[in-house]
Design brief:
Layout (H helix, E strand, L loop, with lengths): L6 H7 L2 E4 L4 H7 L3 H9 L9 E3 L11 H8 L3 E3 L11 E9 L3 H12 L4 E9 L7
Parallel strand pairs: 1-4, 4-5
Antiparallel strand pairs: 2-3
């Protein structure tokens, strides 16, 4: 991930590196959050798994077109209310393991911008083929 163009510069400029959170149910099923493992490895001092929250479990996104993915994720992310002021004016890098349509990243970024984050970037480990299902 660090070898991707601008990845190191983006991480260096960031104030926070936040993984896309999993729901409690998905985390219990999987046993770990792969995005958190990546964020911690990429930027241990800036990574935080508790600023961006998953507020509810959502059905699998795999078979949904992008518009339905976005609708599925409305209200699924939130900023930790007691720490929201820590994000105002900050630069955040979102970390995800796989991006298909970008719906999760889009909705998480929207929540962060509503909380006052000045800049949101994203790094992903893998990208599904364009047109594969969204």
């Amino acid at each position: 991930m660090l070898s991707a163009p601008w990845a190191e510069d983006t991480l260096d400029a960031a104030d926070w590196v936040l993984p896309i959170p999993l729901s409690v149910e998905r985390l219990a099923e999987r046993g770990y959050n792969q995005s958190w493992l990546l964020a911690r490895q990429l930027s241990p001092r800036k990574a935080d798994a508790h600023l961006l929250l998953r507020t509810r479990d959502t059905p699998s996104q795999r078979s949904l077109p992008r518009a339905e993915r976005l609708a599925n994720l409305v209200g699924a992310f939130a900023v930790e209310p007691l720490r929201a002021k820590e994000l105002r004016g900050q630069r955040v890098v979102l970390i995800d393991d796989v991006m298909t349509s970008g719906a999760s990243l889009h909705m998480a970024a929207r929540v962060l911008r509503q909380a006052g984050v000045a800049n949101v970037s994203a790094l992903v480990l893998a990208r599904t083929e364009t047109g594969s299902d969204a």
